[in-house]
Amino acid sequence: TKARSEDRENEIAATAQHGKVSFDPVRPPRRNELNTAQASQTFGRPKVVPAEPLQPMTTEIAFFKHVKAHFNRKDLFPDLYNPTIKRRHTPYEEFIKCIHLFGAGMLNKDELIQLLRGLFIQGNAPKSGANATNITGNSMIIQASNVLLSELEKVLIGRGPFTTQEKTKKFRAKYGNCPLREYDLTELSKNITPSYWSYPSDYPIDVPGVDSDNSVVKLLNSKCFSMAKDWPEKGKNKLKSPESYDGVKVRRNIYEEVLCRVEDEMYEVEMAIERNESALRKLEPIAEEATRLRELEEKDGQPIGRLQYKLNLRSLNTIHIGSIARIYGDSGDEVIQHLLRNPLVVVPIVCKRLQEKDAEWRKVKTELAKEWKLALSENAKGSTDVKCLLYKREIEKSFATERLIEDCQEAKSFAKYPSKIQRHPATNMILPDFHLSNPDQKLALYQPHLSVLVSRMMPHMDAYNLLAAQFGGDRSKFTKLWSGFIAPWFGLPLTYDSIVVSSTTTAMKFSPGQKVRTTVGDGQIISIAADPQRYKVKFSFGVGYVHPDAIAHLLPSSSSAADVTGADDSQLMQDDIQILFGTENIYLSIRLYMLLVTMLYQAKDAIAVSGYTSCKAAIVDFIKSKTDLKEFESTIRGITDKNVFNIVAIPSLVQSCGDAMAKVVEEDVIDILYHCSQLKLKDLNQLRSLSIDVTEEAVYRLQISSSANQVFFSYIPADVELQLSNTLASEKRNLESGENDDDTKRLKTE
């Protein structure tokens, strides 16, 4: 192989535009030098290719400026303005030589400081002769030299292992790992203004590049910092950042979720293609140049590796590097290291790979565009219906457990001050009415309560089917609760299933005069009622009706001629009135069930019969997890555009009602409490006492009046006395009678 001339090599090097060509001998690998895989793990991904030289820090730049200004003193450099003096012999150049010797390892730290101390004090001033100056007695120069040496100490420890150790120590400190706004500052600082807090007393105030005694520090704020006035997250002490608030995300419905997902996918695909194309545009001329140089080497018969090629500074930026690393996956950082070390070989390979990915991704984009277009067309209409999402949320809030309990426990406050009731256009039709007392004396309801309308004409069968679907495999629990409490309470059929029991009548095993043991105590049967089937039993506390299921067994009679007379029907409630003292779960289950039938009734009234049937089928499919939320709402929206929010909120209500009923079954006290209610006792204190004997949590009074189509609820804790008379009316009558007596006395006096 014939060697090339130096002129030919210079000519080849001059043709390179995107890199630097060199024909110097290849440097052998250094000892313990990392390979590409190790370098990628140790140093990570570079920001630019080739890597930029080490940049000076602010403190280093300031130090060198101070040194240059110090050497411009006339005392230290008398020939400053002499044009004949050579620039290589200035004090600053001597200072640079000392720094270079220290960097090369020829001087240690103590030797460097010793050299620079004499240089800072004497400079280039003559030490003897006629022009000698007595600098050693100049206190200003000595003081400035000491300041420069102290700055040099800080500069020397600004890099290297010591700095890394200090940064690690600071990061592990109390305020090092999180922004200050994420700490609980209630005990550490003061809230100066609504938007500013004072720094904690132990917080380190560090201004990079500025000394603590510098005048610049006085101009900086080190007393308080800005903290957005926001609320703490539930269960956390950290304050939420105002930048984390997303108004669109707060009100986003499922259709907007799809549109945002499509938009994100479009953005990611577009950005991947654009970044890939940007890297390709940058690498194509470099690859052409590298290929041309390699072909030229082969044509001239030169050995492989003779020509060395290095990219120009900042040839590839972060976007280009990220694009190249992305197409190689987990090996991306290693490929970047190969690109740094041997661009002549690696760049053409990477460029070809980028071209293949560009064609592949553009083809995928064309296929995805069809799916995006379909998704946008299907969800564009629903995304504009923000009202549905907001109204649905309000409906779900209205049947939240805390809200329902508050309705009953704060009935007096809501009755006195109706403005306290949380009203919304979506919930106005399902809100209960609040009363201080009921004027109907037959109801004996003289304490604050709420009332809800109910009717047998409401779609109870539809509610039954939805709740049965909600229980699924545990349907037996629901049917037991339905037939044992809900159905007789509202006067409904015991089942709506297609396969019904052979007979709904219960055989009457006992006869008048027999003594029996029931769930509410021992008593003697007085008579048998046919509709509904029940026994009238005389107990020690009075007379009451007992359902056949409530009788456990027959008791032995002490006398064959039992006295069954003396039964007074005036001690019993009317048949159309039922009163039950129940637990919180019983109250919640009935409230939620009535909300369910009310919302189904409104939906049935708002749409056609065929549309209502389709809505029921869609709700059942959603409850059984056959469809997702978006598909369910899309189905409802396809059936009707009227009050969609009312229908899409029903599945959540069914779930809440099912959970409440499951808790009632787990309590296992509803059967006895219901049997107590069926005694029809007018003595409500006795009825309440019997219920509390069953469970101390029977603090909710449930009362239904079939003739008035209303259900009443009131909260009566165990320590509150049950009112059996209208105290408000009595006080009013006493007040009126007192006024009449005063008028009579006045007339007699006159």
Walk me through what this model shows.
About 4% of the residues have low confidence. With 750 residues, this protein is an alpha+beta fold. The longest helix has 46 residues. Helix 11 packs across helix 12 and helix 17 runs antiparallel to helix 18. Helix content is 50%, strand content 10%. It has a five-stranded antiparallel sheet with strand order 6-7-15-14-13.
Write the layout of secondary structure elements.
Elements: H1 6-15, E1 19-22, H2 36-43, H3 58-71, H4 91-103, H5 109-122, H6 139-156, H7 161-171, E2 191-193, E3 196-198, H8 215-219, E4 224-226, H9 247-250, H10 254-299, E5 308-311, H11 318-327, H12 332-341, H13 343-383, H14 386-398, H15 401-409, H16 411-416, E6 433-435, E7 449-453, H17 460-471, H18 475-490, E8 515-518, E9 521-529, E10 534-539, E11 542-546, E12 551-555, E13 577-582, H19 584-606, H20 609-623, H21 629-639, H22 644-648, H23 650-667, H24 670-677, H25 684-694, E14 700-705, E15 710-715, H26 727-749
Antiparallel strand pairs: 1-5, 2-3, 3-4, 6-7, 7-15, 8-9, 8-12, 9-10, 10-11, 13-14, 14-15
Helix pairs in contact: 2-12, 3-6, 4-5, 5-6, 10-11, 10-13, 11-12, 12-13, 17-18, 17-20, 17-23, 19-23, 20-21, 20-23, 24-25
